[in-house]
Amino acid sequence: MKKLTIRRLNWFLARQKNETRRSRSRRRKLLRVSEDLFANSAIQQQLIIQRVSSPEQKAAPPQFVYVRQNRTFRRELIIPPETFSLRGDYDNVVSFFQHLRDRAYNIPPTSASALGVDFRSIKKITPGAALVLAAELYRWQIFTQRKLVPVLQDDWDPLISRMLRDFGLFEFLETPDQRPEPSPSEPPFFKFIKYRSGVGVTPTACSDLLDHLSAIVGSIEAEKFIFDGLVEALNNVKHHAYPDNSGWHGVSSGTWLMCGAYSERAKVLTAAVYDMGVGIPATLPRSGLWEQIKGILAAFGANDDSSMIAAAMQAGRTRTGQVERGKGLPIMMRLFDHVRGHLRILSGHGEVRYTSGASEIGRIGRPLSLGGTLIQWQISKV
Predict the structure, then answer these.
(1) How far apart (Å, rounded) are the C-alpha atoms in residues 79 and 59?
(2) Would you put residue 226 in left (φ > 0), alpha (ψ -120 to 50) or beta?
(3) What are the residues whose beta carbons fall under 8 Å from the beta carbon of 113, sequence distance 6 or more?
(4) Which superfamily does 190-382 belong to?
(5) Which residue has the higher pLDDT, 374 or 8?
(6) CA 276, CA 50: separation in Å to the nearest integer?
(7) What angle do CA 249, 78, 255 make, to 5 degrees?
(8) Which region holds residue 60: left if phi is over 0, alpha if psi is between -120 and 50, else beta?
(9) Which of 43, 100, 166, 379 is close enough to 192 for a disulfide, judged by CB 3.0 to 4.6 Å?
(10) Burial 27-44 (b: 16+ CB within 10 A, else e)
(11) How are beta strands 115-117 and 71-78 bridged, if at all?
């Protein structure tokens, strides 16, 4: 070991001083960049697009510096797109979910607290997208053993904050400095019912959800058929969504989340179920209706995911167009033989939509997979 001379000691002190000066300079530069970045909405939107368009990219994430209690923290921000709707901006919303799953899977547990979620960008949120977001934050919490830290809550849209709080989403966020919610200037577009979650078939959860919706909406037409559809969705989760050796899910086999919402402006009631399993198209080849489904696919002239889901829905209907009992997916369609509205299913790379009175099931192919199955009923009250 070298002897510590006065000259060497002075060298160590000078190096430490220079390093401290460089560190302060870097922090000041980051702070200026972050302030300029979020002062310019165009640059902010560009950042959002960059963050969600390439979820598999392993490049260094953007850093954001904010000051609280005279200390400076550096976090990677997870920023959702402005229109948080699977109908209005499917590709960007699904890319956001893929990025969130990628971070949960790859980030070291000791680094999870270095991530923050910033919902300032959200201007619109719909029940289906909110349900998938709750599921992904639930999976994040289980997988990392931590909650995401919300940042700059004072700048969030008050309507969005209120809807997320009613939905129960803040249970998945670390909010030690939770403040009174600011009063929005107008009522939210959706009145959210707090999400439910569970494993296996739980009819009481379906009844409870409908009871809370009735408290907001009043009497619900054809309520029995909504109940049957919800229970059938949970049956599909239990028996098909999580087959053995089907890969990483990050949650217990059979896990589902359920939600309800009502739009006073549009007079539309929504109920939805989401699971994080392999998706309907992956389970159909093992179905007892597979031979019949293959015949329908041949008539469609396509065998993509949306066509497979539509074929499974059509396979259980009689020649008169009525749904036979005990036929899985078609049970979820029975409601729209009695009320106006539509059933929407997103699974794998496919999306289907069955509207009351329609002669055909609408099909849409999606370039990105949702990462689970979302089944959503929307009922018109007018």
Answers:
(1) 16
(2) alpha
(3) 146, 149
(4) Histidine kinase-like ATPase, C-terminal domain (3.30.565.10)
(5) 374
(6) 26
(7) 25
(8) beta
(9) 166
(10) eeeebeebeeebeeeeeb
(11) parallel
At 238-276, the pLDDT tens digits run: 999 998 866 667 888 999 999 999 999 899 999 999 999
Residue type, 4: L
Task: Annotate 58-74 with b (16+ C-beta within 10 A) or e (fewer).
Answer: eeebeebbbeeeeeeee
d(CA 99, CA 223): 38
Long-range contacts of 280-283 (CB under 8 A, 24+ apart): 280/236, 280/240, 280/305, 280/308, 280/309, 280/312, 280/329, 280/345, 280/347, 280/348, 280/350, 280/373, 281/305, 281/308, 281/309, 281/347, 281/348, 281/349, 281/350, 282/246, 282/348, 283/240, 283/241, 283/243
Residue with tokens 């849209």: 157
Instruction: Say if CB 238 and CB 253 are below 8 A apart.
Output: no
In angstroms, the CA 25 to CA 18 distance is 11
Integer Cα distance of 49 and 147 in angstroms: 24
> Which band of pLDDT confidence, cut at 50, 70 and 90, is reported for residue 184?
low
Task: Tell me the average pLDDT across 31-37.
Answer: 44
The answer to whether 47 and 37 are in contact (CB under 8 A) is yes
The C-alpha atoms of residue 377 and residue 106 are separated, in whole angstroms, by 35
